[in-house]
Write a structure and sequence with these properties.
- By secondary structure, the protein is an alpha/beta fold.
- Helices cover 43% and strands 16% of the residues.
- The chain contains ten helices and eleven strands.
- The strands form three sheets. A six-stranded parallel beta sheet has the order 1-11-8-7-5-6. The protein has a three-stranded parallel beta sheet with strand order 3-2-4, with helices on both faces.
- A hairpin with a 6-residue loop joins strand 9 and strand 10.
- It is globular and about 50 Å long.
- The N and C termini lie far apart (51 Å).
- Bound molecules: guanine.
- Guanine binds next to strand 4 and helix 6.
Length: 285
């Protein structure tokens, strides 16, 4: 039986510490951090993510302004809003909730965000900083996964880590962060042949492929650490579920995360941390 690493509990304790740090910093700098969120359309997932971010930000004392636009807003109007937020000295962080509608060029929009306010860590400059080991803002989900592993003192160095998924948001930066912690990393994806033979070698298995309960017990080594980044709708129950078949994999893993209550709260927590880091950075200029 495995130990469940609770992202909910860990996020709560990090948020408590962050609230205190924000209180102290606000006394010094005369204002609290501020995050601007751009949300386009009414995608259910995005609406719920943004609600979660708003609640968490308010709890730690970060001001949050959400600009919610209709699905058919013109790209130029989103562009103008980002330029305005870039120039607004009271705004520390800018987050563009993804996905954007098809008529808006996501890369173009992300590239417009001032890298020092890019709290998602998606701007090419921050992506390059991660790959070159320079100072920058790290993407929230992989940062949250590393924090979860560290919270249980799980050794990463020397371990065989397998990342299933190669998105720019999770899989790729996750692999780089594990590599930077001296794991031996393999990235698997939809074209990987005999996926199970590779995942079975993992001491640390990160599932971020976006397929409900795809990682089954026969794909996991006895005693592996299994981190589930998935956020899918269970086709049978319509409820939120991960990429890992938790009920069966938890019988084999040493440590495992659940969905919900695992990586999700950590992603939000790291977003708050990144906003605070961006805020502090703006006073160093
Ligand atoms: N959509 C799904 N995950 C994310 C995320 O981490 N950041 C943003 N901006 N949009 C998302």
């Amino acid at each position: 039986m495995s130990i469940v690493i609770s992202g909910t509990k860990l996020a709560l304790s990090i948020r408590e510490r962050l609230s205190k740090d924000i209180l102290v910093a606000a006394k010094i700098h005369g204002r609290v951090p501020k995050l601007a969120v751009i949300l386009v359309g009414n995608d259910m997932g995005s609406l719920s993510y943004v609600k979660g971010k708003e609640k968490a930000a308010k709890e730690v004392g970060i001001l949050i302004d959400t600009y919610h636009y209709q699905e058919d807003i013109k790209e130029i109007d989103v562009e103008n809003k980002i330029r305005e937020l870039n120039n607004d000295n009271s705004v520390d962080g800018i987050l563009v909730q993804l996905p954007l509608p098809k008529h808006i060029n996501t890369d173009y929009i992300i590239n417009l965000v001032d890298p020092s306010k890019d709290v998602d860590g998606f701007h090419p400059r921050n992506v390059a900083s991660l790959y070159l080991k320079q100072t920058g803002i790290s993407p929230c989900t992989p940062k949250g996964v590393i924090t979860l592993l560290d919270s249980k003192n799980i050794t990463i160095e020397g371990k065989r880590a397998v990342v299933v998924g190669r998105s720019n948001i999770v899989g790729m930066p996750m692999a780089k962060m594990l590599l930077d912690r001296n794991a031996t990393v393999t990235i698997c994806h939809s074209r990987t042949k005999d996926l199970a033979s590779i995942t079975k070698e993992a001491d640390i298995l990160i599932a971020c492929l976006g397929k409900a309960k795809y990682i089954t017990a026969d794909m996991v080594k006895e005693g592996a650490v299994v981190i589930d980044v998935g956020a899918n709708k269970d086709p049978l129950t319509n409820k939120l579920c991960g990429d890992v078949d938790f009920d069966n994999v938890s019988l084999k893993a040493s440590y495992i995360t659940k969905v919900p209550g695992g990586v999700g709260p950590m992603t939000i927590c790291c977003l708050l941390e990144n906003t605070f880091i961006a805020y502090l950075g703006h006073f160093k200029k």
